[in-house]
């Protein structure tokens, strides 16, 4: 196997790393503290082509591979996981779904502005009673002539406040179970579409998360993605790619933790020498580095399999499971290495811990990833 990145991928990595340092690092803590959405930073990510990385150029995208996307996600999230998740949702759940399954009219109207970063997307699947059990959709879309009438509530919607377009999964025929679920594009400003208050979160506080309410929202039939009943398959296929994005986000958080721990341990002295010379600290650093490298290989494997057109659901689940676990573990170890300083907001590592935990929850909990992995194994 060739583990060497090509010249384009190296350029993407360096560009993302430089952007994170120049545009994100100085304001990440303040935006986290004040829960400020990174409007200017996201606009600049769009200008770099990072909001539609895998979208063909004809639709305003950068026409890059999934591995390049994962590499960029890691570098952005190593500095600011909030920007990472905003970028992930727009790329993985919205642009990818429209690129693969949208009609030509939908691509022209919605995908081009989303991929160029001029518009922002959100993905609405979860409900009060439909989290891990995504089949239990209570949001309904009833056909009336050339329109659907949408009613229901969606929870935990990243980008929900600022999204211009939201892909909503709804039940169109309850007698068919998950085969009666469809997907729709909801446009900002549609009558009857409202947003709840922004959630006060443990981490990724610079990104917005809200509930969405639909009260007799009238949706043109042209805003349905695919055929009626295609929505559940659309959601599951889209989430497979989304797991690569969140795995890369978790990998980035873990990398940020290791970078901070290395820097601090070289500068901090105890017993008349840098604590990096203490074996107890060295062992922590070694374990962090090994776990991160294992996570990176899993993320890269899933991305490459996607690029090759091979089934990658199990590999994406493995990558997310291990990378998210690694992010939490590395954040805890980074705090321990920092000692009391790690527990206060003067240093980044307490933010990394708060940001890391969500990667074990959204886009499929770690328990759901284990179900996906085990089912794939039992089919073989």
Short summary of the structure?
The protein has 380 residues and is α+β, with helices and mostly antiparallel strands. It contains ten helices and ten strands. It has a four-stranded mixed sheet.
Question: Main attributes?
Answer:
4-stranded mixed beta sheet; Butyryl-CoA Dehydrogenase, subunit A, domain 2; 10 strands; Butyryl-Coa Dehydrogenase, subunit A, domain 1; 52% helix; 4-stranded antiparallel beta sheet; alpha+beta; 3 domains; 10 helices; 380 residues; Butyryl-CoA Dehydrogenase, subunit A, domain 3
Shape: globular
Mean pLDDT: 96
- Secondary-structure arrangement, i.e. CATH architecture of the largest domain: Up-down Bundle
The first-to-last residue Cα distance is 23 Å
How many structural domains are formed by the residues?
3
Task: Walk me through the topology.
Elements: H1 7-34, H2 39-48, H3 66-77, H4 81-101, H5 104-115, E1 121-124, E2 140-144, E3 147-158, E4 165-171, E5 181-187, E6 193-195, E7 209-220, E8 224-225, H6 231-267, E9 269-270, E10 273-274, H7 279-307, H8 313-338, H9 349-357, H10 366-379
Parallel strand pairs: 1-4
Antiparallel strand pairs: 2-3, 3-7, 4-5, 5-8, 6-7, 9-10
Helix pairs in contact: 1-3, 3-4, 3-6, 3-7, 4-5, 4-6, 6-7, 6-8, 6-9, 7-8, 8-9, 8-10
């Amino acid at each position: 196997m060739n583990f060497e990145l090509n010249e384009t991928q190296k350029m993407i990595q360096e560009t993302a790393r430089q952007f994170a340092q120049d545009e994100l690092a100085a304001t990440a803590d303040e935006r986290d503290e004040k829960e400020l959405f990174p409007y200017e930073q996201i606009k600049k990510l769009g200008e770099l082509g990072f909001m539609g990385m895998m979208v063909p150029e004809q639709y305003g995208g950068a026409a890059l591979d999934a591995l390049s996307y994962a590499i960029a996600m890691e570098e952005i999230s190593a500095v600011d996981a909030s920007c990472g998740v905003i970028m992930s949702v727009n790329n993985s759940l919205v642009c990818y779904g429209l690129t693969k399954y949208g009609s030509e009219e939908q691509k022209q109207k919605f995908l081009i502005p989303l991929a160029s970063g001029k518009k922002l997307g959100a993905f609405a699947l979860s409900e009060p009673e439909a989290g891990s059990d995504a089949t239990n959709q209570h949001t309904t879309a009833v056909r009336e002539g050339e329109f659907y009438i949408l009613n229901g509530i969606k929870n935990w919607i990243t980008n929900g406040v600022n999204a211009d377009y939201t892909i909503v999964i709804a039940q169109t025929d309850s007698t068919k179970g998950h085969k009666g679920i469809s997907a729709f594009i909801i446009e900002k400003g549609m009558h009857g579409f409202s947003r709840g208050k922004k959630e006060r979160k443990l981490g990724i506080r610079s990104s917005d998360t809200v509930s969405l309410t639909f009260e007799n929202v009238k949706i043109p039939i042209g805003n349905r993605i695919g055929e009626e009943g295609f929505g559940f398959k659309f959601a599951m296929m889209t989430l497979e790619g989304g797991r690569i994005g969140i795995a890369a986000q978790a990998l980035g958080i873990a990398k940020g933790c290791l970078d901070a721990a290395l820097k601090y341990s070289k500068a901090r002295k105890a017993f008349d020498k840098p604590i990096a010379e203490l074996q107890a600290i060295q062992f922590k650093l070694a374990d962090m580095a090994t776990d991160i490298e294992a996570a990176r290989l899993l993320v890269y494997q899933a991305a490459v399999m996607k690029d090759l057109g091979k089934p990658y659901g199990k590999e994406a689940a493995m990558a997310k499971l291990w990378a998210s676990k690694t992010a939490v573990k590395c954040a805890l170890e980074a705090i321990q290495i920092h000692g009391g300083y790690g527990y206060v907001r003067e240093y980044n590592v307490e933010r990394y811990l708060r940001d890391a935990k969500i990667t074990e929850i959204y886009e499929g909990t770690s328990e759901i990833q284990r179900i996906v992995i085990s089912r794939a194994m039992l089919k073989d």
